[in-house]
Amino acid sequence: MKRAFLGEFEEVVLLTVAILDEGAYGVSITQEIEQKTGRAVGFSTVHTTLQRLEEKGFLSSRMGGATAERGGRRKRFFNVTAAGRKALQEVKQVRIDLWNALPPQTLQLMGG
Amino acid sequence: MKHPQNLGPPRWATRLLTGWGHPDTQEEVQGDLLELYTHWVETVGERKARWRYVLSVLKLLRPLAKQTKYQYPTPERPGEEPRTTFFSSPDMLRNYLKIAWRNLVLHKAFTAINVIGLAVGLATCLLIVLFVLHELSYDRYHANADRLYRMTIHGQVGGKEINTAEVSVPAGPALIQDYSGVEAFTRLRQDGTFIVKHDHESFKEEHVVFADSNVFNIFSIPLLKGRGAGTNPKTVLTEPNTVVITETIARKYFGEQDPIGQTLTLGTAGLFRVTGVCQDVPSNTHFHYDIFGSIRSIQLRNTWLSSSCFTYVLLRPGYSINNLQAKMPELVKKYIGSEIQELFGISLAEFTRKGDVFGFHFQPVTSIHLHSDLEGEIEPNSDIKYVYIFSIIAVFILLVACINFMNLSTAGSAGRAKEVGIRKVLGSVRQQLVGQFLSESILVTFIALLVALGIVVAVLPSFNQLAGKQFGISAFTSGWMLPGILLTCLLIGLLAGSYPAFFLSAFKPVSVLKGSVRAGFRSGWLRNTLVTTQFVVSIGMIIGTLVVYQQLHFIQNKKVGFDKDQVLVLHDTYALGPKANAFRAELTKLSQVQAVTQAGYLPAGASNSGNDGFQSENGSSPTTTYREKTYYIDENYLPTLGISLAQGRNFSKAFPSDSSAVLINEAAAKRFGWKNPVGQRLSTLGNGSPESRHVYTVIGVVKDFHFESMHQRIAPLVMVYGADNYQMALRIRTTDIPGLLKTLEQRWKAQTDNPFAYSFLNERFNTVYQSEQRVGQLFGIFAGLTVLISCLGLFGLAMFTAQQRTKEIGVRKVLGASVASVVALLSKDFLKLVVIAIVIASPLAWYAMNRWLQDFAYKIDLSWWVFALAGFLAIGIALVTVSFQSIKAALTNPVKSLRSE
């Protein structure tokens, strides 16, 4: 069965876009990820991932209005598409299924 | 971070992003980065912010990305026209390369010829460039190279010119004392070879010198270890009997031990303490000493009228050498007048009135290697002439390779004419076509460069051997070499591609497609000129090679006046000391040995050399002093070397009076103006003191023999009775030379623990002409390569013509032409060019080779057959190259060539 595979970083980016809702664009996404996950993320990495996600159809984008900051250059805002939401759901479901399949004693051992 | 606003993100990075970023996301990426940059400046500081900015830009470059979606202008977003493909846009570049590659693959034979020809040319050129750059770099690395000069003596005494690289011992100190413009001087004093001992090991060291203590300040040879290393190298050679050795020597004698404070025994000069270790003297230096002793360790003759020290002068910055030069007559007057009075018995004024001259001169240290050819040079120097010759050859070879390239491209253009027509019809602009042809030729050049580098790596060891250098692969990656190579290749590609590019792109599509332009072969005159040029160069090189080899053959087989075959020379027999005589007697008894002589003075290879002033006691002009070469020989010398007497007798033990007898050569008899030299008397000047003056009687005249290289005429020579046991020469008579050598070595080892070393006189004789031999070999190789490249080109052209005229040949054959006539038809055009080339090349080569031969006092005459032979060779080679194709074309069945229409 062919299903769009979602990499770990892709998942994080996709989720962040969902969290930021209307205000998701390159910089805010990068900074949000850095804050939430505490890991240093390169802007170029995020940018590339966003491109890829858009190609896969998980994200859609539109250009915002011109702003006075950033040299008058417009922002590209991202939205999660229906496919993107579905993919996130699937990933989450897989995780939950896997966690549920864990034997209770192992779960205890892991401190859960 | 006082003005965070002042410094924005690096502008070049932004520009890079604009040019090469992904066109689809340009705007927002730039905006995002700007925003982030402001954020970074606030959080991590400006320096890091700029760094991160640049890093992000670099990661975001997508040089080959294409715009995927064209956004049509909207009311909010007007402007932006559809992008047109400029000839240098990434899209077009990609397309050029693709088409170029397909074309190259399609015409495999042409591509191969082009690439091979160009690669061979480039490889040769690279090697020559390496060689030439190395030659030009001699002594330029010294920190003060521009202010450093070597003092020389130029003068004339008794009609004989004196040009020595060594000058008087007191000259250096006098200069610094009298002239404030002189900052420092250093002297190098050679004292021959030494047997160097440490513990029980001993080696013969040839590169030993005694130097003033500041030698490492004057020449930039870094001291690695030793007192004051790095900070003050001045202190390492101040005391007597101290030495500084090179790394190599340190490893040779002391291994991993620290050499500082250890001792070495230098021959008879005594025990020396090592006070320093210096780096090996760089290969591009005019001397290569391994052991530097302090000059205070040896006795120096403190007289002005002898030359014994290489003296280097460092001028103060801004002080011109011409100033110093202008003061030299003054110096000569001040110090040398009295010595001349003492030695010749005349005043300096009288001395100069007689036409004699004595003067000091200076040469820049950087010019020694290529421009200096004086008596007593430290090492045989190279000659700027050869730098020129090889540079010209490099240019020629590259030219020939480029011509090939151009020729084949223009010839191939006929086939491309239709392609150009179609492209133009479909909307190509001229720029794009030019771009396409240029990228094709540049691609070929770079493929050729890769092949050339491969060739260079493969032949580098043999080239090193041939040229006497030690180049590594690293020579190509250092400094400007690599960018230079790439740039040159780009230029060659542009140059070679320019003609076809502009010529082809100018076609009118209508006429091309109608077929009214037989493109390509209209430009015959240009191609003919180029082919002729190639053959002029090739023929010139063939003639050059023939002449060089002829001259070498002439030198090596000329009657030298002594019998150089079957003479074995034992080195360093002085090490035997008093046992030498007994050893000689022992060797004489061997059945394989005919005669043995003590031969410190030899006409070839390592030899002592001496000069003395002579006055004829009863000759035509009694007061004239001649400075002549002197040999000290024993009674066995003449028979051992096979030198024959013209008059008189050899030295003999039977005449006790022979201690004041001399032999002279015919040239000397002529110089002194004697009809009957035997019985004439000569007096020597010695060093001026009465006890060093002698009066000699001439007892015989030897036939002239070449005791110097053939570059010079045979000079007068005076041979004095008295042996010099520096070496021994043995006339041998055996076919079992290894056996004899074994015996000799055993006898030698029984006497001394010094190393056993020997050479053959004829080999030593040949090494005198090593540089000529080297030139001969290199010339031969280069000539061969030039011919090869030219022939490749010719082959390609012939192949092309044959293809072009397939139909014509078919028709001719159907109408009854014979194979021979077709071959003649196809070959005739090329042969005409070769003949024209011969006519042009012969006088040029004649002129050039005549100039080269001027250097030899004994030389061949340029004979016509050399030119004829070169011509025939060229015609022959061209014919073979062309006929392969023409015969193939002539033999083709006309049915095959005609059936397509």
UniProtKB/TrEMBL annotation, chain A:
Q: Provide the coiled-coil residue spans.
A: none
Q: Where is the signal peptide?
A: none
* Residue ranges constituting the Transcription regulator PadR N-terminal domain according to the UniProt record: 19-90
Q: Gene3D superfamilies, from UniProt?
A: Winged helix-like DNA-binding domain superfamily/Winged helix DNA-binding domain
The record's InterPro entries line, in alphabetical order, gives:
Tscrpt_reg_PadR_N, WH-like_DNA-bd_sf, WH_DNA-bd_sf
User: Would you tell me the protein name for this molecule?
Assistant: Helix-turn-helix transcriptional regulator
Q: Which organism is it from?
A: Spirosoma validum
TrEMBL record, chain B:
InterPro entries (alphabetical): ABC3_permease_C, MacB_PCD, Macrolide_Exporter_MacB, Permease_put_prefix
List membrane-spanning regions.
112-133, 386-408, 437-460, 480-504, 525-549, 778-802, 814-842, 862-884
**GO cellular component terms given for this protein:** plasma membrane
Tell me how this protein sits in the membrane: Multi-pass membrane protein
Q: Please, which domain of life does this record's source organism belong to? A: Bacteria
Residue ranges occupied by any MacB-like periplasmic core domain in the UniProt entry: 111-329, 580-717
Q: Where in the cell is it found?
A: Cell membrane
Q: Which UniProt keywords apply?
A: Cell membrane, Membrane, Transmembrane, Transmembrane helix
GO MF, one term, reads:
transmembrane transporter activity
Cite the NCBIfam families for this sequence: perm_prefix_2
Q: What is this protein called?
A: ABC transporter permease
Q: Which organism is it from?
A: Spirosoma validum
